[in-house]
Amino acid sequence: MYQLLKTEGMAKRGRFVTVHGTIETPVFMNVGTAAAIKGAVSTDDLRQIRTQVELSNTYHLHVRPGDQVVRQMGGLHRFMNWDRPILTDSGGFQVFSLAGLRKIKEEGVHFQSHIDGRKIFMGPEESMQIQSNLASTIAMAFDECPSSVADRAYMEASVSRTYRWLKRCKVEMDRLNALPDTINRKQMLFGINQGGIYEDIRMEHARQITELDLDGYAIGGLAVGESHEEMYRILEAVVPLLPKDRPVYLMGVGTPANILEAVDRGVDFFDCVYPSRNGRHGHVYTDQGKLNLFNAKYETDPGPIEEGCQCPACRSYSRAYIRHLLKAKEMLGMRLCVLHNLYFYNTMMEEIREAIEAGTYHEYKKRKLAGILEQ
Fold first, then answer.
1. Residue where a domain stops, chosen among 272, 303, 333
2. Do 97 and 154 belong to one domain?
3. Which helix (H) or strand (E) holds 87?
4. What is the mean pLDDT of each run of 10 residues along the chain (375 residues)?
5. Which residues belong to the annotated binding site for Zn(2+)?
6. Residues placed in the known binding site
7. What are residue 257's DSSP bridge partners?
8. Is the pTM of this model over 0.90?
9. Which residues are part of a known binding site for substrate?
10. Could you tell me which residues belong to the region RNA binding (predicted)?
11. What is the pLDDT of residue 375?
12. Each residue's pLDDT tens digit, 43-81
């Protein structure tokens, strides 16, 4: 159940109640593709840095260790020792990213495992069955994420098929949730809006999926090559057509600036690999922009990554020490940078929620953007 608590323009402050706990929105979901955050970050760490939602990948967990294994272990929450909400994506994005290995048909997609080359088939029903075995809090509908440069004819055909697949996902999810041996019989389903940068296709698809009365609605197929301006234009066209009493999730986005702009356009949920990926390469986020700790100027810098930051890295270690760890290829260096970045994102979302509640979001956004875009 989603409750809209406050608005400021299009920006929303909401509360989403799930079987695994309440999610305060806007929220950034910390990405743990294979049921772990890359960079040696544990679920205890996630609790310490105030993570609300963890996101895992249906395709990767299906390939390894296998969703049947996770089901046998009691579901993803028990398997990875995480008692808060989990969202699993559907595997649809892998259809896009594994473009050289896949064949899309009406029944679903035939493709090869990126690990051992074995042939895999995944359609709407299979994706729902895998996600039911994983027993996540929120399951994503199976869709195709077409290239942002696909022509209109391909995009129209792709979006029509994605809509047909969504209806099949809903039927299968309802069936699975009614079975007595399903681990999470209150698993939620989010549909995904597609259509590239064609506003009219996006808008028509938004109207169609809204009629299906789903638990939430995602906007997919952005941040895949189009400009930031095109992304914002699509959000301005699509978000107003989605139900006001359901959360809106912008998939795979993004930078702190992207998030601030998208919140201003009515988005509730975000996820992105940037904080963990950048952290593993020594790039850390601060209110004064992004820093590269490999830079020589930090070699004897005794200060924390960011003054006043309460993350585990900043409370205990200097830039100089973390730089040394990174240069020496010690895993602790990566781990501390990832923890700092996730803490930065989670804290920024808390600040966003507080600003919307106080009616000062536009001032906050302006001030935050001025800082983070400095470097």
1. 272
2. yes
3. strand 86-89
4. 98 98 98 96 98 96 96 98 97 70 89 83 96 98 89 97 98 98 98 97 98 98 91 98 98 96 98 98 97 98 98 98 98 98 98 98 97 73
5. 309, 311, 314, 340
6. 89-93, 143, 194, 221, 309, 311, 314, 340
7. none
8. yes
9. 89-93, 143, 194, 221
10. 252-258
11. 47
12. 999 999 999 999 999 999 999 999 999 999 999 999 999
Domain shared by 233 and 289, yes or no? no
285 plus 239 within the same structural domain? no
309 lies in the same domain as 258:
no
Say whether both 110 and 212 belong to one domain: yes
Q: Tokens standing for 141?
A: 């509908």
Q: Shortest CA distance to 275 belongs to which of 263, 298, 258, 297?
A: 258
The residues pairing with 292 across neighbouring beta strands, listed in sequence order, are: 283
Q: Are residues 229 and 365 in the same domain?
A: no
- How many CB atoms neighbour CB 321 within 10 A? 17
Measured at the CA of 35, the angle between CA 30 and CA 39, to 5 degrees, comes to 65
Partnered with residue 320 across adjacent β-strands are: none
Work out how many domains the chain is built from and give that number.
2
Q: Which two tokens stand for residue 342?
A: 């996730």
Cα–Cα distance, 18 to 56 (Å, whole number): 17
Last residue of a domain, one of 225, 253, 272: 272
Residue-range definition of the domain harbouring residue 217? 2-272
